[in-house]
Amino acid sequence: VYKRQIQNTMEKIKICEARRDDLEHLLELNQSNLPHVGSITQSEMEYLHRQAIYFPVAEFNGQTAGFLIAFDPEADYNSLNFLWFKEHYPNFVYIDRIIIAAEARRKGIACFLYRDLENFAEERQIPLMACEYNLRPKNNISRQFHQRYGFNEVGTQETENGKKTVSLQIKQVAPLRSSTQ
Predict the structure, then answer these.
(1) CA Rg, the chain, in Å?
(2) How far apart are CA 24 and CA 174, in angstroms?
(3) Per-residue model confidence as pLDDT tens for the chain (181 residues)
(4) CA separation for the pair 73, 57 (Å, rounded)
(5) According to the model, what pLDDT value does residue 178 have?
(6) Which of 38, 79, 80, 134 is close enough to 139 for a disulfide, judged by CB 3.0 to 4.6 Å?
């Protein structure tokens, strides 16, 4: 259960674990961020909630400000991008989506969620954070954010029958363990 808070420019960011009761509102937030994230249904949101290893909701000034959904390789998830990482890396935490409400952007919420996920991964000795962002259609905000946060491209692929091209990204967060350890 996540209950971390920080002071951020005299405002509070609070994150806590997503509850089933939150999912309808989080789905609306997801759908308001197309095409930068994939469209999903309510039942798909519920499925993601069950499969996620990490699914916090961020609040800013008492209002829902965003969320992040991440999976480990054990998740039963058929996303092409997740499966790409599963084929190439034995141990990682995959960021499926991060959504920040329009009115809550530029307040450090995405960085706070990523730092918390990084701590989550380190505590569990998960060596890599993995994600992707759109190259086509361009998502320059996501590209800049991930570059600043220390992610590096390890591949690209087309998705949605060629409608999208994504940059596959990783960031090392814990020491990689050799198979002899």
Answers:
(1) 16
(2) 34
(3) 444 544 444 458 999 999 999 999 999 999 999 887 889 999 999 999 999 999 999 999 889 999 999 999 999 999 999 999 999 999 999 999 999 999 999 999 999 999 999 999 999 999 999 999 999 989 999 999 999 999 999 999 999 899 899 999 999 997 776 544 4
(4) 22
(5) 55
(6) 134
Question: Which amino acid does the sequence have at 118?
Answer: E
Q: In whole angstroms, what is the distance from residue 82 CA to residue 53 CA?
A: 14
Burial of 33 (0-12, 13-18, 19+ CB in 10 A): middle
CA separation for the pair 73, 82 (Å, rounded):
8
Distance, CA of 38 to CA of 43 (rounded, Å):
14
Distance CA 157, CA 147 (A): 19
User: Phi and psi at residue 72, in whole multiples of 5°?
Assistant: -100, 175
What distance in Å separates the CA atoms of residue 138 and residue 50, rounded to the nearest whole number?
Answer: 30
Specify the 3-state DSSP secondary structure of 150. Answer: coil
Q: Quick one: tokens of 17?
A: 């674990």
